[in-house]
Amino acid sequence: MTTARTPTGTTPNRGRRAGRSTGDDREVAILATAERLLRERAFGDISIDDLARGAGISRPTFYFYFPSKDAVLLTLLDRVTEEADAAAGDVLDRLAEDPRARWRELIARFHATFGGHRDVVLACAQVRGTNAEVRRLWAEVLERWVRAVQAAIEMERARGAAPDALPARDLAIALNSMNERVWYATFAGDGPAVAERDVVDVLLDVWLTAIYRTTTPPVTPSDRTP
Amino acid sequence: MTTARTPTGTTPNRGRRAGRSTGDDREVAILATAERLLRERAFGDISIDDLARGAGISRPTFYFYFPSKDAVLLTLLDRVTEEADAAAGDVLDRLAEDPRARWRELIARFHATFGGHRDVVLACAQVRGTNAEVRRLWAEVLERWVRAVQAAIEMERARGAAPDALPARDLAIALNSMNERVWYATFAGDGPAVAERDVVDVLLDVWLTAIYRTTTPPVTPSDRTP
DNA sequence: GATCGGACTCGACAGGGTGTTGACCGGGGT
DNA sequence: ACCCCGGTCAACACCCTGTCGAGTCCGATC
After folding, report:
1. A174 CB below 7 A from strand C atoms
2. Are the C-beta atoms of residues B37 and B51 closer than 8 Å to each other?
3. B18-44 burial code (b ≥16 CB/10 A, e <16)
4. Confidence class of residue B224 from pLDDT cuts 50, 70 and 90?
5. Using CA atoms, how far apart are residues B33 and B12, in angstroms rounded to an integer?
6. Smallest CA–C1' separation from A26: which nucleotide?
7. pTM for this one?
8. Which stretches of chain A drop beneath a pLDDT of 70?
9. Residue of chain B minimizing CA distance to A185
10. Closest residue to A129, CB basis, from B125, B173, B194
């Protein structure tokens, strides 16, 4: 992680206030208002005035807490990615136990996290095109996940469970990209999309065949018989 | 195709003019200006005034030719998708000849088309979040491609070349989605991306393993020995 | 050759959103 | 008693969008 962190918390301080004071609840009120409004309309249709009024303050006062509308969304996105990281946990370190089950667990947990905050995720996808900061943050997060998957694939190859084929990094990028786009379509509901109940299994199937050439990868290392 | 078409041309008339007249070159001037400006900055940073001045007209006059800035982009997108459709041709009907080569041809041609108009494609991806019309058109185009791939997969399964597994439609959606997102990252260059020279082969590999469970699918039907 | 109508053009305005400025208020430390 | 400072907002300057009404040009019509 390269972003600066506040001394008090673990999330980057996208607001302006340095120390703590009574204005803390105003900040969370803005955040809460944003999440509520996001449930009923698109991010672009929410004005700073809406956010301010929803939090019981005037528009100029909004700027005391956040430098822009986008910064609010960025804070929301931080929470979601952190939750996803936590949900993923260390499943990738325990792949050899039962590869299929572990990969499924990984995908299912990401699915649950994103699905639980679909409004925020959808809004981020929308503004990623126009906002460089969101783009940067998402790129950073994705890079971390790509690296983790890449390392896991290399581990599986090392233990002989997966064949050497594509560069692990390229494969990791392709699979992560697929998940992102497929989830987006499923949550957004516009255009061709996989049904929500099936999406985890569909993604899992493509991951397993791309990594192992089979949907039933071997559980224990083939060359270790202690 | 469900969109209305002008009597004169083959593309939907996103401009306003009904008959032809001297204003034709103004319309293409706007389109050309849009493509040129898109090469140097983001769509959101281009104002209608920029487009108008670039075409040598005033801002109100712009509205005589297009109802909005987005309509210009929509016209540009039409061209690209039509070119992609033409480039794809009938490769999917000739899969049995040499599956690997045909699939590669399909992906490579799409890659070439999108890569040749990357500014337009990138801009469309950007506004898809905020513009319902772009979203609708893209969904329509994607649906067509998904159906074509789905049919091809079912054909390959019928001739015994590919195993029955995931519903063909879900698989087609996942693979098309992956391509879209991976190309976007490669062309945009932000965040983890596959290098442009490798991207076709990376995508191909995932497609083949997901569809056939192997990267060397059989060329001729297994049960036909005349 | 006058006139008419439609294609075409733009100056000017209204509306709505953003970001900033300067002043004001209230309370805790000195 | 004072003053700094967190917190607050009315008012302003700015930019962009979309529209309206008035004007020009030109081929078709009488």
Report:
1. no
2. yes
3. eeeeebeebbebbbebbbebbeeebbe
4. very low
5. 20
6. D7
7. 0.88
8. 1-13, 15-23, 220-226
9. B177
10. B125
